[in-house]
Write a structure and sequence with these properties.
mainly alpha; 17 helices; 59% helix; DNA-directed RNA polymerase activity; DNA binding; RNAP_asu_C; PIN_8
Amino acid sequence: MNNRDNHSKTLIFIDTNILLIPLKVDGLSVEDFKRLFNPFIDIIYILPTVYEEYKNICRTINHKNIHAIDHAFQDWAKAATALRALVETIPDWKQFSNKCLSPKVCKKAEELKSNTNSRNKSICEDSISNLEPFIKSRLYREPLSYTEKLKLYEQAEFRFRNQIPPGYKDNGKKGISRYSDFIIWKEMIKATNEIFKEKTGWHEVIFVTNDKKDDWLSEESKERLVSEFEEETGCSFLLMNLKEFKEAHKNQVKSLTTLMSQLQVNLEKKNTSKALYFLKRQLNILVPWGATFINLSDYLSSSELEVIKKAIQTLPGAIYLIPIQFLDLTNRANNCCLNAEITTVGMFSKMTLFDIASSRNFGKKSLEELQSKTKNLIDYFNITGEDSIIASTSE
């Protein structure tokens, strides 16, 4: 980020084609995707149109994969049948036909096709499920109104005719999808102005995209986009593909490892205040991705997991740093906590029944769920002493 003093004055927007990378067979794994973007979790935003595009593509991607494999198998089956008919007329080749093109082989091929389809579907669905908490937590929730979009469609047509970036290369598409790039551009401008309402000093906006079209990437397009963005927002604008982003921010990506090292060092030195600080930063990075005490091993190596466990178990007051989402609550229980302004596990553990009863919509089932999962968390981390106190329905 050009070595500026702090990245709180930086915004990062992610394009649809970046979100789809973990769904590709040869793309980044979800885990690698997390490692790359976790250090920037508080400054990343997903625009409404990007999210809609992502959902629409996710709905069709399994169907397309299955369709492609089915076609490939059908082509193979036709070729195998034709070859069998040919070689069976040649005496010396009959044995080959019986072994390599037998009905048993064709049946095995059918099973292979079915297993491949099931595997691809599972990989795709798991990737979507694992990314969903991140996308939902970083979704910019101020979409353009229908009236605003109608006006922008008219502007887009003018820009298409005059080849003004971005999006004019999509002019040949059918329907309103041809306007998506331009709408994303305008949503980015709107979000920047909303988030940076009081602009003081230097600000930078980064758009991470793997789009390769000239209406984004030609030197003339880049120059026009930078100029328009600065005029509309007062902020500088950078366009990066994933490879460029990884290279430009490799030091920030490494910061997670540094945080874990600092936590471990301060634990060993028994420097409680600093250890609590580094523990809080780690948890605040993990939780937006959907990490809970149940699935931590999906996000951390075994050695990192041990450091986190030790910190939560031994640091006094650590339970007050654990976000309530770390309990893996149902939506109902989570909403009850939001209404009651319960943000950490420690806050809940010290509440009385009277406190909870006076909270809006806090039913018995939600209370029992919170108590049960808080107890499970305390047992999992082997928390003892005052930090292990749990509110009781009998109070």
